């Protein structure tokens, strides 16, 4: 019997992947962050298979994946895909007025909108400009 097909073994594997994600997602090494994304994708597919498309756990994993892709890696388009699905799932499991929806989901959504305006200098200093209603550019950070 393949251990990945049994629920207890799968649960332990997901916990192990979760530890890998936690240890790798804030790493300076790009390879480690890539490993966090890979483990996150595997966990998302496992949860989707075992718990269904509207599991609260799935919503949280999707939200975490959006966080890693956007904040740690700057992969905006992929992050938006995960964030959109996370929002759809969490609206069902938690409700649209839940504090998670009003804080973390909204913050990531706002960041995904602002992220293309940010630029990082050679010394990793973050610079940005925001165009206000008068179409004048002003410093953001």
Automatic annotation (TrEMBL):
The superkingdom listed in its UniProt entry is Eukaryota
The protein's matches in InterPro entries, at most eight in alphabetical order, are given as:
TPR-like_helical_dom_sf (IPR011990)
Fetch the Gene3D superfamilies from UniProt: Tetratricopeptide repeat domain
Protein name (Swiss-Prot/TrEMBL) = Uncharacterized protein
Organism of origin:
Strongylocentrotus purpuratus (Purple sea urchin)
């Amino acid at each position: 019997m393949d251990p990945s097909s049994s629920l207890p073994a799968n649960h332990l594997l997901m916990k192990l992947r979760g530890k890998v994600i936690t240890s790798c997602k804030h790493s300076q090494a790009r390879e480690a962050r890539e490993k966090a994304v890979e483990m996150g994708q595997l966990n998302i597919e496992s949860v989707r298979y075992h718990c269904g498309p509207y599991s609260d756990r799935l919503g949280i994993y999707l939200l975490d994946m959006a966080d890693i892709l956007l904040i740690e890696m700057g992969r905006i388009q992929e992050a938006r895909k995960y964030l959109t699905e996370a929002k759809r799932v969490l609206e069902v499991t938690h409700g649209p007025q839940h504090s998670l929806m009003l804080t973390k989901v909204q913050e990531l959504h706002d960041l995904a909108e602002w992220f293309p305006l940010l630029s990082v200098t050679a010394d990793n200093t973050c610079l940005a400009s925001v165009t206000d209603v008068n179409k004048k550019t002003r410093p953001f950070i």
